Amino acid sequence: LSRRGVRKLQVLSLRRGLRDAVASLPGLESLSLSGCYSVTDAALASAFAAELPALRRLDLSLCKQVTDSSLGRIAQSLKNLEELELGGCSNVTDTGLLLIAWGLKKLKHLNLRSCWHVNDAGIAHLCGGGEARGTPELEYLGLQDCQRLTDEALKHAATGLPNLKSINLSFCVAVTDAGLRHLARLPNLEDVNLRACDGVSDAGVAHLAESGRLKALDVSFCDKVGDEALLHATLGLSGLRSLSLSACRLTDEGLERVARLSQLETLNIGQCTRVTDRGLR
């Protein structure tokens, strides 16, 4: 495989040693182990015993046996990693994020979906808080269903992640409008997903509108968001291309304001039960 120039490897089922597969591909740039439930810390420690300077992307999503121990090994051996997928790795904790913050200086994409043990302290590590060096090059941060996170995490992000372009906070039920005030300070933020964030209201959208830079916003199933949010959007988010308002308190009056968003390409208003045919004309 190495002689054929293979640089990307996707493993669907692990029946043989991972170490042999990795060792045979010294130029490996992308490795996906997504859904390989049998992968353990020991297997990853063996596979990454030596440095892999070419590896840029690693997908460990749904590798449920992976713990902070593996993140320590990754931080040591994969120093050029730019993309790390940890969605569903529910044993990862703030300690693991500290290890990432120490070793992965080039990281641009980090997905922590459903890493339920992660809290504000872990995000502080990524942002260079305390003894951590941080991950200042990060452009995407996926925090979907990390329900221990609060507005404090967004306060850390506002000061420690200056290159952040996209953040997914869907189902982070402790995030509120106050946290979005911090988020709006990020100079490069373009995409915010707040789906099912119960603490977000029209006031939170107003905070985001102050930035004037967003291109995509999802506040679906935020039942405190309504017509007033669209007023703020039309005044401060004229560059929006995608807007999702499914199940929000939207009426025909609010929908009329959407027409002022001249660059809008995608609008989701499913389950907005107060919208009638008149609002769609």
UniProtKB/TrEMBL annotation:
One of its GO terms (cellular component) is cytoplasm. Residues 54-184, 188-280 form the F-box/LRR-repeat protein 15-like leucin rich repeat domain. Keywords: Ubl conjugation pathway. Pfam families: DUF7885. SUPFAM superfamilies: RNI-like. The keyword Chaperone does not apply. Gene3D superfamilies: Ribonuclease Inhibitor (3.80.10.10). InterPro entries: F-box_LRR-repeat, FBXL15_LRR, Leu-rich_rpt_Cys-con_subtyp, LRR_dom_sf. PANTHER family: MITOCHONDRIAL ATP SYNTHASE COUPLING FACTOR B, OS12G0601000 PROTEIN. This is F-box/LRR-repeat protein 15-like leucin rich repeat domain-containing protein. It comes from Pectinophora gossypiella (Cotton pink bollworm). The lineage of its organism: Eukaryota, Metazoa, Ecdysozoa, Arthropoda, Hexapoda.
